[in-house]
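Bug #77: duplicate submission created two jobs. Keeping one. Sequence:
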Amino acid sequence: METTQVKHAQRLTTEHRALLEQIARQAPLADVLDGMARVIENLAPREIKVSVLLADPDGRHLRHGAAPSLSDFYNQAIDGIATGEGVGSCGTAARS
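Kept job's structure:
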C-alpha cells in the first residue's frame, strides 16, 4: 500500500471509532448523522455533498436527517417529500 492509502485508512478508522463512541454515549441522532456526513465528505476522493433523509413512521414521507453542505433552502424544500414512483430520485428510491 502507498503511504497515502495507509494514512487514509488510518484516518477512516479514527473517524469510524469516533462515530461509534458518539453512538455508545447515546449522542443525539442529529449529531451522529451530521458527523457521519461530514466525515464522508472530508474523506471522499473528490468533492461530494452528503444528504441523509429519514423515513417518517408512516413510511410515506422523508424527513431531513443531515446535509451539512447543502443550503438551508434545499434542506427545507426536501423535508417532508413524499415517497413514491416518480417523486424525484429520493422519493423513488425510498419507495423501492
